[in-house]
Amino acid sequence: MSTFESRKRSRELNEKLIKLALISAATISILTTFGILFSILFEAIEFFKLRSFWYFITGATWSPGVIGSQFGALPIFAGTFVITIIALGVAIPVGLGSAIYMSEYASATVRDYLKPLLEILAGIPTVVYGFFAAITVAPLVVKIAEFFGLEATFNSALASGVVMGIMIIPVISSLSDDVIRAVPDSQRKAAFALGMTHGETIKNIVLPSAMPGIISASLLGLSKALGETMIVVMAAGLRPNLSWNPLEDMTTVTVTIVNSLVGDFEFNSPETLSAFALGLILFVVTLILNMISLSLIRKFKEKYKVNTL
Amino acid sequence: MIKRKKEKQNNNPFYDSTLKKRHASAARFKKFTLTSLLFSIAFLSFFLFDIVGKAIPAFKVAYIQTEVTFNEKSLDDTRFAVDKKYRDLVSRAWLRDIPSLLKENPNFMNTTITTWVLADDQVDQYLKGHHHKLKENEITFVENLLSQGLIENKFNAIFFTKGDSKIPEYAGLYSAIVGSVLTLIITMMVAFPIGVMTAIYLEEFSSDNKFTRFIEININNLAAIPSILFGLLGLAIFINLFGMPRSSPLVGGLTLALMTLPIIIVSSRAALRAVPDSIRQAGYGLGLNKIQVTRDHVLPLAFPGVLTGSIIGLAHAMGETAPLIIIGMIAFIPDAPTMVTQAATVMPAQLFTWAGMPEGMYIEKTAAGIVVLLTILISLNTVAIILRKKFEVKW
Amino acid sequence: MIENDNKTKIAVKNLNLYYGVNQALFDISANLYENKITALIGPSGCGKSTFLRCVNRMNDLIPIVKIDGSIIIDNKNIYDKDVDEVSVRKKIGMVFQQPNPFPKSIYDNVSYAPLKHGIVKKGRDCDELVELSLIKSGLWNEVKDKLNQPGTSLSGGQQQRLCIARTIAIKPEVILMDEPTSALDPISTEKIEALMLELKQDYTIITVTHNMQQAARVADYTAFFHLGKLIEYDETQTIFVNPHNKKTEDYITGRFG
């Protein structure tokens, strides 16, 4: 074999190895997703061998660590639901309103300063939000409730819900801002030429066009709220409580997962395994929300032929 | 008056009474959106103000000037190193350090020196005007010392040089900082190469087939999975299956690496995509193969963007707590770890632990820790933005 | 000035427009006549579209624009302080170069503005207005069975006629058209030119066009713009056959633009 041929051979081998390395790196993301899915699924199945799945979904008593322990997760789902609704109730109006102002009303310089400011909210670690919720907001809620003659606990769902909502504002505002700006200007011009005010143009023409993107942003915000851990671990309660009263304490899926794992129970006990059962529900729900959100954005991109999202 | 107004209206063919309501409605709408924006800004200001306000007291701590006796009796039971009246007012932990102080200064043996001794946390909290548990007579004594200038607030070096402690005045961030550094080194050592290689594969080498789209779907999903579930993965696979040491920066770093992958992949892909195709065409035109073109021509141009994305990923990982709690990194860590396989904690986890402690001094320490953490994050993000602006090439 | 029996609908007096420090329109004065089609022609960037947008105050939407001078319609300067720009646009409609129907149904595209302005209420009155507008814009027969379909499902030419229909629906007195056929195929163009000739009986039409043949076909009067100045304004016949200004002649004969 001539040196030319042998060099060519080794170069080709080199290329193949590099390509293999690159593909292997790329498959790690696949392995990770499936790793999460299967590890959670496996342990969750172990849990459901010990306790009823049906009762898990619908039962109202969650009492681990005792003889005859029951694992009905309904109050936990309810608590998660209440806190999440409060969070979205803060994040969606404020996030969407901010996005509308920045994209439709604000001048370029104002926008340049304010957009990064909102991004700062996104960069604050959740443990910091949790501290703020527990040390400052929760006592404030108690005081305000007293002022109105109501009683609030120091672990009120309201405190953690509001702070969680603030944390999610950038998720909603950032994506909404992008989709609103993606609505073609020709639509606005047509509306103005027909004698519409700016407010009417936004409400009747721009927002309906941007709606798939806004819904997508809301679903992403919802998904983030469901999976949020630190704020609720630090400021919400530990007691599963099936209640609609935001001034009461209640607990969420993520808090229960943490609690089930930092206890002194054996790894194969139903107490510890229940964390994986809850993790499975969380995984499936956030996955579905994420897929719906992505398909909405994809449809929006196709419709307006946008690449900036 | 009204007559004149009506005349004015009659002369104006463009007068339209129905418009007033519509304009008012439009103005209200604009006001609502502005209010939302201001609410976010107001919260940010309130939050910063509150945290910094709570943190500032932590950077100074009270010291009492008194006599410390070094002899056999005091070394045996360090409580006897100070006078009885001071015994409950100085830090027990500081006293426990006396033997090591003696090792550094053996000439102190059998002498009594006057020096500044760290005060007990209750004294410090009293002086700062916070809730305290001092008794009446102790308060009188402290005020007395204060008026004599025998109590001073000194810079709280302990906060930065010591690790965690169950004794509030002796608790510091040091071991958590070391833990964070070790964990993040592992994180970036794993996430950076894998992330960049994945991006290179997707942008330069892959074709638009099912496999590629599958990878992209997975990356999107990974980005949206709640962080706590990565903790479950770490627990079930790294700790249980692979038997790696619990609470170690190794496991923490690997777990965070998986979380950081999507950020690095997405930003690296954007950086690679931004390099215009003409660069690649020029390379091929010169007879180079794809690997050479990518390695020698595309990658260097994309590098600033890749670096920026990685710094942002790093900042993200630095603030993560939930998955690390699941894999056990919230143990009590007084001494900084020296190897990645030892038990450790990270800064946000340390703050989480402190926030749950009953003693009041931990609140200001947590707030101070938050200020330190936020400062580091803001610096990292600023560096990333400066890098991006500096190397931003307009094609 | 031209001597005739025409009634002036729009009297432009010393109109100057600035984009920040750059002046784009220089001392424009002209009387635009009622129920006539006036074409604005000139090379790219000559200011004809900018001028058109002054007539319905669309330039007000651009923050750095400053306007000097007056445009008098029905004895009122539309740039007076007590004139609401929204009500100006009710009287003066605009059709754009690229058809831009709303992503709503054909019916809703036409009915949206009249309902908002309170011209009709929902129900039979509204249905009649939609039908009338679509008939007038020559689109009714093609869409009467599919009023619920989205406006964007129509062809380019049909979309443009839909845009004309929705403009007519608010009962304007003037219709401004900014190169209405340049994005359309020849057959649609022909249909719209025929439509313009019909519409001028009820409306005053000002149209910007870069197609001189179109101006010659449909316009009663033509205004030639060059570098922000109104060079010549006269009956179309005169402009094309016997222009007074050399620049006009050069443009008409294709020496530039």
Do you know the CATH topology of chain C? Rossmann fold
**Basic shape of chain A:** flat
Largest sheet of chain A: 2 strands, antiparallel
Shape of chain C: globular
Extract low-pLDDT stretches of chain A: none
Into which percentage range does the β-strand content of chain A fall? Answer: under 5%
Strands in their spatial order, largest beta sheet of chain C = 6-7-8-3-9-10
Strand order, main sheet of chain A: write it out.
Answer: 1-2
Structure description:
The complex is a heterotrimer of chains A (309), B (395) and C (257). Chain A is built from eleven helices and two strands. By secondary structure, chain A is an all-alpha fold. Chain A folds into two domains: 3-50; 62-304, MetI-like fold (Orthogonal Bundle), CATH 1.10.3720. In chain A, strand 1 (62-63) and strand 2 form a beta hairpin. Chain A starts with a helix and ends in a 5-residue tail after the last helix. Chain B is mainly α. In chain B, helix 10 packs antiparallel against helix 15 (290-318), helix 11 (210-224) packs across helix 13 and helix 14 runs antiparallel to helix 15. Chain B is flat, with a radius of gyration of 31 Å. Chain C has a single domain (8-252), classed as 3-Layer(aba) Sandwich (Rossmann fold). Chain C is globular, with a radius of gyration of 18 Å. Classes of the chains: A mainly alpha (309), B mainly alpha (395), C alpha/beta (257). Chains in contact: A-B, A-C, B-C. Chains A and B meet through helix 1, helix 3, helix 4, helix 5 and helix 6 of A and helix 2, helix 10, helix 11, helix 12 and helix 13 of B.
